[in-house]
Automatic annotation (TrEMBL):
<keyword id="KW-0028">Amino-acid biosynthesis</keyword>
<dbReference type="GO" id="GO:0051287">
    <property type="term" value="F:NAD binding"/>
</dbReference>
<feature type="binding site">
    <location>
        <position position="154"/>
    </location>
    <ligand>
        <name>(S)-2,3,4,5-tetrahydrodipicolinate</name>
    </ligand>
</feature>
<feature type="binding site">
    <location>
        <begin position="123"/>
        <end position="126"/>
    </location>
    <ligand>
        <name>NAD(+)</name>
    </ligand>
</feature>
<dbReference type="GO" id="GO:0008839">
    <property type="term" value="F:4-hydroxy-tetrahydrodipicolinate reductase"/>
</dbReference>
<keyword id="KW-0560">Oxidoreductase</keyword>
<dbReference type="Pfam" id="PF05173">
    <property type="entry name" value="DapB_C"/>
</dbReference>
<keyword id="KW-0220">Diaminopimelate biosynthesis</keyword>
<feature type="active site" description="Proton donor">
    <location>
        <position position="157"/>
    </location>
</feature>
<dbReference type="InterPro" id="IPR000846">
    <property type="entry name" value="DapB_N"/>
</dbReference>
<dbReference type="GO" id="GO:0005829">
    <property type="term" value="C:cytosol"/>
</dbReference>
<keyword id="KW-0520">NAD</keyword>
<feature type="binding site">
    <location>
        <begin position="97"/>
        <end position="99"/>
    </location>
    <ligand>
        <name>NAD(+)</name>
    </ligand>
</feature>
<dbReference type="GO" id="GO:0050661">
    <property type="term" value="F:NADP binding"/>
</dbReference>
<dbReference type="InterPro" id="IPR023940">
    <property type="entry name" value="DHDPR_bac"/>
</dbReference>
<feature type="domain" description="Dihydrodipicolinate reductase C-terminal">
    <location>
        <begin position="129"/>
        <end position="267"/>
    </location>
</feature>
<keyword id="KW-0457">Lysine biosynthesis</keyword>
Length: 267
């Protein structure tokens, strides 16, 4: 049995992960950490009976008591690094889905996991369709280097652009560099009458972030060429879409060497 702790257990993703872990035959939920709902039991939060597991607020105390093998983090970007450093200090492998980390924070995780020789995993998107979309986008950008990203999420999402859009832009930029191609420059005199109208630029790729009720997690990558466009679109209409990827990461993380980023590296 893999002993699993979940940080952010009472959140939208945390509840779904709680359910998925509790249904997996090779996993046992041993700790649930969140800053809210600490009086409620995870069973009622997730709509399942998980007798004996209470939501706690102190991750280190929970880790020392419950001794998990793996810590899954779907909390907030400010909590990820401290949570993961505690995990690595105690020999627990982190599986991180939380987005919005800085490059410096990812670098710190990488160094610490390497120093401590502990497997760690981070993915901005655990849905297989999103992983394929990112790969197709990178492949297509070699031939159609003019690309823009539109990501659309629920109104409660705090970070923009999404982690998925950030990684997609990074993959597109790498593909452009490898192929030696460049996007078309904006016409001379181009201007924004409303600041931000052309989106935020990530690694040379304009990204447009939409936040509205009714959305879960969606992304379009639009590539333009002479007389044609190619649109790649992925829709997560239910958070269950992320669960097979999360379970896969929980099963594989302890066999990794240091920090691995991106679900494609586990498939
Ligand atoms: N990689 C992927 O495939 C996916 C990633 N995500 C990412 O996961 C993250 C969570 O998303 P979502 O579930 O919608 O967010 P929620 O706000 O619903 O859940 C986050 C939970 O974490 C709690 N929390 C805050 N600080 C801490 C802490 N220090 N320790 C433990 N728990 C804490 C929050 O409590 P409080 O309410 O008090 O702040 C909240 O209950 C986001 O960064 C999102 O982008 C989401 C979907 C898929
Ligand atoms: O906050 C979300 O909901 C999601 N966050 C991740 C991201 O920022 O890319 C993954 C997915 O898009 C859902």
């Amino acid at each position: 049995m893999i002993r699993v702790a979940i940080c952010g257990a009472a959140g939208r993703m945390g509840r779904e992960v709680t359910r998925a872990v509790s249904e997996a035959e090779d996993m046992q939920l041993v700790a649930a950490i969140d800053l809210h709902h600490i009086e409620e039991d995870v069973g009622s939060l997730a709509g399942i009976a998980l007798l004996g597991v209470k939501v706690e607020s102190d991750w280190k105390a929970a880790a020392l008591r419950a001794r998990p093998d793996v810590m899954v983090d779907f909390s907030v970007h400010t909590a990820v690094l401290p949570n993961a450093l505690i995990a690595l200090e105690l020999g627990i492998s982190p599986v991180i889905g939380t987005t919005g980390l800085s490059e410096e924070e990812v670098a710190r995780l990488e160094t610490t996991a390497k120093e401590r020789k502990i497997g760690a995993f981070l993915a901005p998107n655990f849905a297989i369709g999103a992983v394929l979309m990112m790969q197709f986008a990178a492949q297509a950008a070699r031939y159609l280097p003019d690309v823009e990203i539109i990501e659309l999420h629920h109104e409660k999402k705090v970070d923009a652009p999404s982690g998925t859009a950030m990684l997609t832009a990074q993959r597109i930029a790498e593909a452009r560099r490898a192929a030696g191609v460049h996007p078309t420059a904006a016409p001379e005199g181009a201007f924004e009458k409303a600041p931000g109208a052309r989106g935020g630029v990530v690694d040379g790729v304009p990204v447009h972030s939409v936040r509205l009720p009714g959305f879960v997690a969606h992304q379009e990558v639009i590539l333009g060429g002479v007389g044609q466009t190619l649109t790649l679109r992925h829709d997560s209409t239910d958070r269950r879409s992320f669960m097979p990827g999360v379970l896969l990461a929980i099963r594989k993380v302890r066999s990794l060497s240091g920090l691995v980023v991106g679900l494609e590296n586990l498939l």
